[in-house]
Design goal:
Radius of gyration of chain A: 23 Å
Strand order of the largest sheet of chain A: 3-2-4-1-10-9-11
CATH topology of the largest domain in chain A: Glutamine Phosphoribosylpyrophosphate, subunit 1, domain 1
CATH architecture of the largest domain in chain A: 4-Layer Sandwich
Largest interface: A-D, 67 and 67 residues
Largest sheet of chain A: 7 strands, antiparallel
Shape of chain A: globular
Structural class of chain A: alpha+beta
CATH class of the largest domain in chain A: Alpha Beta
Helix content of chain A: 25-40%
CATH superfamily of the largest domain in chain A: Aminohydrolase, N-terminal nucleophile (Ntn) domain
Mean pLDDT of chain A: 90
Number of domains of chain A: 2
Oligomer: homotetramer
Number of strands of chain A: 23
Number of helices of chain A: 16
Strand content of chain A: 15-25%
Amino acid sequence: MNDLTQRQPRHLHEECGVLGLYAPTRGELAPLAYYGLYALQHRGQESAGIVLNDDGCFNAWCDVGLVNEVFPRERLEAMGQGTIAVGHVRYATTGSDRKRNVQPIVINHFKGRMAMAHNGNLTNSFRLRQALEERGSIFHTTTDSEVIAYTIVQARLTAPSIEAAVSAAMDKLEGAYSLVISSPTKLIAARDPYGFRPLCMGRRADGMVVFASESCALDAVGAVFERDLLPGEIVSVSHRGMVCDTSHCGQRPKKLCVFELIYFARPDSVIDGASVSLARQRAGAFLAQEHPVEADVVIGVPDSGLDAALGYAKASGIPYAMGFTKNKYIGRTFISPTQSMRETGVNLKLNPIRAEVEGKRVVLIDDSIVRGTTCRRTIQLLRQAGAREIHMRVSAPPFVAPCFYGTDIDSADKLIANHHTTEEIADIIGVDSLGYLSLEHVVQLTGPENTGFCTACFGGGYPTEIPGPGEKDRFEQPIGRNKSDGE
Amino acid sequence: MNDLTQRQPRHLHEECGVLGLYAPTRGELAPLAYYGLYALQHRGQESAGIVLNDDGCFNAWCDVGLVNEVFPRERLEAMGQGTIAVGHVRYATTGSDRKRNVQPIVINHFKGRMAMAHNGNLTNSFRLRQALEERGSIFHTTTDSEVIAYTIVQARLTAPSIEAAVSAAMDKLEGAYSLVISSPTKLIAARDPYGFRPLCMGRRADGMVVFASESCALDAVGAVFERDLLPGEIVSVSHRGMVCDTSHCGQRPKKLCVFELIYFARPDSVIDGASVSLARQRAGAFLAQEHPVEADVVIGVPDSGLDAALGYAKASGIPYAMGFTKNKYIGRTFISPTQSMRETGVNLKLNPIRAEVEGKRVVLIDDSIVRGTTCRRTIQLLRQAGAREIHMRVSAPPFVAPCFYGTDIDSADKLIANHHTTEEIADIIGVDSLGYLSLEHVVQLTGPENTGFCTACFGGGYPTEIPGPGEKDRFEQPIGRNKSDGE
Amino acid sequence: MNDLTQRQPRHLHEECGVLGLYAPTRGELAPLAYYGLYALQHRGQESAGIVLNDDGCFNAWCDVGLVNEVFPRERLEAMGQGTIAVGHVRYATTGSDRKRNVQPIVINHFKGRMAMAHNGNLTNSFRLRQALEERGSIFHTTTDSEVIAYTIVQARLTAPSIEAAVSAAMDKLEGAYSLVISSPTKLIAARDPYGFRPLCMGRRADGMVVFASESCALDAVGAVFERDLLPGEIVSVSHRGMVCDTSHCGQRPKKLCVFELIYFARPDSVIDGASVSLARQRAGAFLAQEHPVEADVVIGVPDSGLDAALGYAKASGIPYAMGFTKNKYIGRTFISPTQSMRETGVNLKLNPIRAEVEGKRVVLIDDSIVRGTTCRRTIQLLRQAGAREIHMRVSAPPFVAPCFYGTDIDSADKLIANHHTTEEIADIIGVDSLGYLSLEHVVQLTGPENTGFCTACFGGGYPTEIPGPGEKDRFEQPIGRNKSDGE
Amino acid sequence: MNDLTQRQPRHLHEECGVLGLYAPTRGELAPLAYYGLYALQHRGQESAGIVLNDDGCFNAWCDVGLVNEVFPRERLEAMGQGTIAVGHVRYATTGSDRKRNVQPIVINHFKGRMAMAHNGNLTNSFRLRQALEERGSIFHTTTDSEVIAYTIVQARLTAPSIEAAVSAAMDKLEGAYSLVISSPTKLIAARDPYGFRPLCMGRRADGMVVFASESCALDAVGAVFERDLLPGEIVSVSHRGMVCDTSHCGQRPKKLCVFELIYFARPDSVIDGASVSLARQRAGAFLAQEHPVEADVVIGVPDSGLDAALGYAKASGIPYAMGFTKNKYIGRTFISPTQSMRETGVNLKLNPIRAEVEGKRVVLIDDSIVRGTTCRRTIQLLRQAGAREIHMRVSAPPFVAPCFYGTDIDSADKLIANHHTTEEIADIIGVDSLGYLSLEHVVQLTGPENTGFCTACFGGGYPTEIPGPGEKDRFEQPIGRNKSDGE
C-alpha cells in the first residue's frame, strides 16, 4: 500500500544503482547482494531486485519498495544459493507501469537466460526499438533497458560469446549505460564509452568479484576497491577468470555526470579516483572564493549541503555550525501536513537550531535550487528562528537544460533558473544574497584539471545527439493512445 | 508474505479464468471486473490481474494473491475509468517465476499496446517459441501465453486488422486456449477449435458486453447469459459493433474438458448448454446404477462431492445427509497440523457429523482420488465417528494420464490409479467397496448423446499431438540450466 | 487495515467462544489452542487471543482479527511452552474500544496472575461495577468480563483457594457466563446456574483436559468428548487432579439459549446431549408439519438453512435441492457492491442455480429474518432465476425482544417482526407464503420434552431480572460523556 | 511482524515522550498530535498512542510500532474531532507484555474516564501497588503508570477536583514522572518535584495550549515555546482557562537527568532554558580542556557525537571533519549481518570517509561507552580506513550505576566501566588514548553554575530512596512465577 501513500515532492532523481557479485564457489549470495543494495539505496527508492544465478537456474525477486521492504528475512532466505548475483535499485516513477519496470530484467533467449541491471538512459532507444518492432518484436516494458537486452540478444545470433555480443551491441547503443549482466555462466559489467554513470569493481578476501555503481557498496559487502571501469570497458568474469575488453575505450571523450559528485553519490564513495566528500568541500571553497560575504556562521542544508558548508567555512574562516536538526524517522509513509497546516507553522522535516542562528548573519549552503519552493520554506524557518541575514550559496551552477543521460531533473519549464535571474531568485526565495558555483569551477571539483564531465544540465552542451521531441514523448506518454489500429 | 506460508497440498488445478468487459461509454469498469474475477476465483487462487483500457491508455495491475488481496479498495479506486477491461485469475504454481507469470500480459508492439488473458495450454508452444528465439526474439516469461501474443503480433505484420491477426495466429496455435484480448480500440474473445476450455458471453442492460470463462461471472456482474462461444469462434467488439468470425469452427471435433463439469466449474455455471450442478447429479445417478450397494445414508465430500451425492441418493432411494462440517475459515495462511499432531487426532478442515454416520452403512461420494492420502484421512475420520461400513463412489473414472490442455493433474507416477487396481485402492484408503464412474457414462453427463468431451486424463486418448518429453521439460525446468553458452 | 474495511452487514452475533487446555506435562500448547480456536471461529471473528501459562509465567497474545491473522506462524512459535492455555474468540463490535476489549484478559492481583476467557453477559454488571468504582477502583475496559475478574479477586481476599473464590463470586454474578480461568497453577471452568451458554469438556489420549464452548473444538484438538458442564458447575484441574464443585447446580432452572441450536453452533457440535445438525433437521420437520405447502423443491439458504431444509424435505416428501452456490472466497476485506451497482444486478455472495429453481414452486428455508433486507434480496435473486412460487419457512419464531445473555440481536426497533404481521412481512420480502416455527415447537428441538431453553428473544420471557434502561446505556455509550467532573 | 524482526542491539533507552493538546474549539487534533509525536519519536520507538477526547468521549488508538506504523492515514482520519488530545511514544521493551503496556492508558472510574501519558519511573511503585493489591485491586499491566492512575483515582474519592486529586497523589508518589492527563473536561500536566524528566508548554496562534516532553515537539506543531514546567508544578487547562498549582515546587532539589542533555534529547530542543546543541558543544570544549591531544582531525560518531566533536574542534583548534557516512535507510526491519559476515568485513551502518582519516591522527568523540562492543567495531573501521592514531573522547563520565528514574541503562554487570579502568577500556576498544568527561564538568553543561542535575548513573548518588532488590525484580520478572496460590 506504500505506493498509494502521498510522497514528499522530490525534484531530482538518480535513475538507478547496479550491483554484481561473482563467487568462485557456490554460496548464499543473496544476503551480500542485500547489503550491497542497501548501500546503494540512495540511488533509487522505488524498487529493488536481486537475481541469483545458480548454475544457470535464475532465481529472481524484484518488487516496488525499499530494499528492506522487498526483501524480508524469509524472502532472502528463500533465494537459496548460487555463484552469481545481479542487483538493482530503481528511482521513483509514478503510474501503473511501476511494477512492470522493476529490474534486474530476466529474459529467455535461444542461448538460455540472461539477467541485466542497467543505470543510465539511451538517447537512440526510440530508433532501436522502432526497428525491432517493425520486425514484429514485442516489448513488455517501456524501458530502454529492454531495448539494450534485445539488442544484445540480436547481436548474440552472430557473436561467438556473450561478451562479444555485448561489444557488438555497444556499437549500436548511444547514451548513458552502466550494465551488470549475468549469462548462465558469466558475470559481465560494461560502462558506456562516455562514462556518464559510475561503475567500479572490487574483490573480497574470499575471491569474490564485485561490481557496483559506487564504492560504498564495495565497503558494505567487505570488498576492497580495485578500480573504476574505464569508459567503454567490458569486464567478464567466469570460472576461467577475468577478461577485460577495452576496444570501445577512448572512442569518446569522458563525460562523467558532475552531479554525481555534487549530489547523487554518497560522500564516502570514491568515483573515478575522487572522494565525493572532498569534491563537495572543494565546491564550498570555490563558492567562498566566488561569492564571499561577511557573516557569523556557515550552515548547510542536511544532508547534501553539509560538506560544501564545511568547505566554505574553512575557506572563508567563518565558523561552521549545524544549523538544523533533521527528523530521521520521516519515511515514505509519512503523512505530509496540508498547506493550511503549514501556514500555522506545522513543520517536521527540518527544524532550525535557534541557538546557532538567532541574531546572526548566516551563510546557507545547498546543492541546488530546482523550483525554489522547498528552498523558500527552509529560509522562512531560518527567519522565524531569528537569523538576521541569510546569504545563500549553491554548490552547483543553475539548472537550465534537461538531462537525457539517466537523471530526472524537473521539466525545463518548472526550473526556476530558466525564468528568473539570480537576483530575482534571491528575491523569490527571500535571501539577502545568492550565489551559484560557476560552470568554470564545477569542472574542477576533483582537481585543477578538468578530467571530463558532462555539464549539459547547466548549459554545458550535450555530448551526444539527443532524442527528438516525438521520440522523447514516446517514452513518457502512454503508448497506444491516439494510435489508429489500422483497420 | 502469504507466498511463504505453507500451503495445503492440492493435486488438481484448473489453470485460469478469463474475463472481458466492453462498455459502450467510458466508466469505472474496475469494480465490475473485480466482481467478475471474484466469481471466477475458484479457477485460480495464485494471482489476479485487471487491465483497464482507457482510449488506448492501458492501466494494469496484476499480482500474486487472491482477488481481494491484489485489489484492496485503494487500488481499485486508483484504476480510474475506461471502456474495456480484461481480467484474469491464475492457478497456484511454485517458485521464483510466480510474480513474472501473472496475467493479463500487456505488451507493446508496432501497432500500440495489447492486453491478453489466456486459459489453457498450447501443445506446440515449444516449437513456436523455438522458431521465434532462433530469430533473436526474447521472452520474459516461460508461459505459452507469451508465445500466443508473439504469434499474434507477428501475424499482425501482414494482417489488415487485429481480428485478422488472431485468426491467422490460430492457424499456427495448437492445443487449448480461451482468449480475451484488448487492442487499443477493440475487445476480442477467441476459443480454440476443440473448445477444450469454456468461454461464454452475455450482455448487461446498459449495453455492456461481457466475456467470461463461466456463466457465474456473468451473473456476478449483472449480465444476462447469451451464449457460449463456438469452438473456433472469434468475437470482436468495438464502437462499430460486434463481429463474429466462425471460419475456424468445425475444423476440429469438439473436445470440452469433462473435468470442467465434474470438478472445476462452479455448480451454478452453465457450460455449453449444460448445468454443472445437474451434470454432477447425473454422475451420481450413473454411479448408483453402475455400483449399487445396500446402505443407510449417502454423503458427499464437501464441496464438490455434494451434488453427486444428492444424485446418487435420489437414484438409489438411500437417504441423503450432510455428513461433514467444513471449516470455512481455513484459508491460505492456515498453519497445517504436523504429522505427529495429526496422529493424535488433530483435525480441522472436515469434521464428520457423528449423529449422521454413527452405526450406519455410508455411501461416500467424491469427485476424484488423486494420490489417495487425503481420501484415506477422510475415511479414517468417518470410521472414528462410528461409520459401520463405507462404500466409496467416485464421480469420475480413474486418472491415468497427464493433461496437456491446461489442467495440472498430479504427475503420472504419483497417481494412485496408475499403480493399483480398484480393489487395491479400496484397501489402501480403507473402504468396504469402491466404484468409479465408467468412461462410457462420463461422456453422457449432459445427456444421452456424447456432445464432445476430452477424456484424455481418463485414458480416453489425446485429441491432438502432444509435446515430446524434451519439450515438456523445457517449460517445467529452469531454462538455462545445463545449457552451454556456446563460447 | 482490515478493521477499516467496510464489512458486510450482519445482524446477529454470538458473543464469544472459550477454550481451556490443561496438560499433565509441559509442552507446546499454543498450536493446539490455535486449532481449537479455529474450530470456534464461527462464534467470534472480531478478535482472538491465547494465554499460555508456563509455571506461573503468563505469555499472552491477543489482537483484533481472525485466528489466522492474529497468529501467524512466527507468533505461534514465539509463544513457547507451558502446561495451561486459555483461548478466546470474540464477536465483531465497532469503535475505538475494539483493541482494548480483546480476551482472554490477564490481570495481576495479590496472589499473582490470572487469565480469564468469558462467553455471555451479566445482567447485574452495572451494579457490581458501580459498587467497585465507588471504592475508587479503576476499570480498563467496558466489559463485564473485567467485572467478573474483579469480583473473583475480591472474593479471593477471604476465600481459601481460587475455586472457592470463583464459587463465592458466583453468588454475586447474575446472568450468562461460561468461564475458563487460569490461576498460576490451575485451570478452572465454570458455567452459570442457568446454563445459558454451552460449555463442555473432553480429554486427549495423552491426558490433556480440554474445555470448550462447543464439542467441535474437542474434535479439532483430538480430544474425546466427555460431558457438558452442568449449569452451575465449577471444574478445577491441577497437578492434584480434577475437582468438581456442583454446589450451585440446580439453584436455577436450566435455560440454554435455543438459538445456539438454531443458528450459532456448528452443525457437528453436540450441546447438552443434542446434535445441532439433528436439532435443525427437526426444526425443518416441525415447519413441514406447521406450515405445509404444495411445492416442487425445498432449498435452504446456505449455510445455516441447509439442515432445516433437509428436514423439511424429508418430512414433506418434497425433493431437496441445493438451490444456491455461495462464493466461498468472500471474506472480511471484500468490497461490497454499491447500492447503484446492486440495482444493475451485481451480485456475488449467493447465486441461485437456475436449473434447480426455474419454473418451480420453491420452499425456501432460513433460520431467521432480522431486518428483512437480506432476505428480500435473496428472494429477488430466486425470482430472477425463474422460481414460480416462493414459500418461505423460518426455522425459529420471530424475534421480538432484545437478548441480555450474550447475543447481539439487532435493536428492537429494527426487528421487522416488531412492526409487522407475518402477512405484512411476506409482502415486504416478496414471498407467496411465510411461516415461522412456533414457540411451542422450538423448545422441542432436542426431543419431545422441553429440557430447558431460554426463548426470551422470541417473547418467551426473561429468566432473570434485566438491566434497567440507564444501566444498559452505561455499557453502550461512551462513558464520561455529559458527566460533570465535580469541580 | 515487525516485532519479530531481529533488532539492533541498543543499550541505552529513554523511557518515553509525552504530549498534550488543548484546543479552545473542537477540531481535528489527531494530525497535530501525530506531528508532535513524530518530533518525539527519538524518545521511544516501541509503541505510540493518541487519545482524543471529544466532549468526554475518549477515542483511543495505541499500538506497538513507530508513529507512522501505528497511524496510517485511514487511522488518523478515523479518529475524528475533539478538544483535548494526549499522546505518547514508548521505548523498546521485549516480551509478551509489549502490547499490554502501550500508552496513553485509558481508565474508567466513578467520575468517568481518564487518559494518562507518563514519562519516568516511580521508586515506590512496588509499595503503592502492594497496598492497593492487598485491598483486592487488580492490575492489567506491570507499569508504574497504572499505579499512578490508581493513586490519583483513589485520591479523587475525597479530592474536590481532578487537579486536587493529582496534587494529593503527588504526596504519595516518589521518583520521576512527567504526566499529561485528560479528564472528561480538562487537560492537566504535572512534573515531579525533582524535575527528573523535562516537560514544557507552548501555545499556538489559534490559542491551543501544548505540553510536550521537549520543545522540538512545540516547533513541530506550530506552537511557540512559553516555558518549562517547574519541578513539582501542576498546570490545568479547561474552558475556564489555565490554573497553575506550585504547591509542590521547591520541596525537593532540582535533579534534571543530565543524560537528557548529553544524549536523549534532540539537539534543537531547549530544556530548562538550555540549548541541547550548545550543551553538547560545551561538553566537547570541556573534553578538549580535560584531555588535550595532538591530532590532525576531530570527528564525531553520528549522530549524537557530532555536536561535541564540533565543540572539541573549536576549543582545541584541530580541524573538524565529517568522518563517517551513516546509512539513513537502516530501520527496524533491517536484517543484521551475522557475526561470520561481519568478520569478512560486511558493514553497513557507518562507513568511514577514507579521505578524511587516512594517515591522520584522529580525535573521535562519542557520547558514551556502554558495553564497548559497538565502540570497538567503529574503531576497527577507522583503522581499516587508515587512521594513524585514534584518541577517543567521551562526552560523559563513565556509567557505573543503574538508573531508577526512567532510563534503561544496561545492567550494571554489563557496563564495561564497572569492571575496567579507563586504561583497560582503551586497550579493549583499541584506541591510543581515552578520556571521559569529568563529573565536575558534566554539571556545568548549561553554564558555570550547577543548576541541578541527577548524575546517579555516573556515581553521583541517588537523590531518592531506591527500590530494594526484591522490589526491582517484581517489575522485571514475570509476576506469578514461583508464587504459591495459597491453597
